Every structure is written in structure tokens, then in C-alpha cells.
Amino acid sequence: MSKKNNLAKRKKQYEFDLQSTVDGGKKKGGSGFQVGKRKLKTKLTAVAKAKATQAMELDK
pTM of whole model > 0.70? Predict the structure, then answer.
């Protein structure tokens, strides 16, 4: 494996690790998650949940 390819692979893995830690862990909770005062009953992926929380922070 070339050095350039190895660096690209490490960067990709690092970005994936960052993306998975945004969600705050991989524990399975209830069927929904808290937005404001209401609990949504949807199953979102970790990335979608992170985007939703970021959008809520921008609204404040």
C-alpha cells in the first residue's frame, strides 16, 4: 500500500470516527429523541440526528 493511499484511508477513518461521536455514543435508547419539549417518535440515523440537533441550536 502506498503512503498516499494509507493517509487517505486514515483520514477517511478519522472522519468516520468523528461522525459517530457527534451522536454521543452508540447506545440504543427509546424509539424517539428529544427536540425542544416534545419527543419525536422517529428512528433517525446518527448523522440525521446530529443534523437535527445542529439545526435546533441554530434556531436558538
Answer: no
Q: Is residue 58 part of a domain?
A: yes
The CA–CA distances, whole Å, from 21 to 4, 6, 25, 43, 53 equal 26, 23, 6, 18, 14
Structural contact between residues 40 and 32, judged by C-beta atoms closer than 8 angstroms: yes
Is 43 domain-assigned? yes
Residue 60 is inside which H or E element, if any? none
Lookup: cell for 15: 472522519
Do the beta carbons of residue 47 and residue 55 sit within 8 Å?
no
Q: What is the pLDDT at residue 29? A: 54
Domain-embedded: residue 57: yes
- Over residues 28-54, the mean pLDDT reads 68
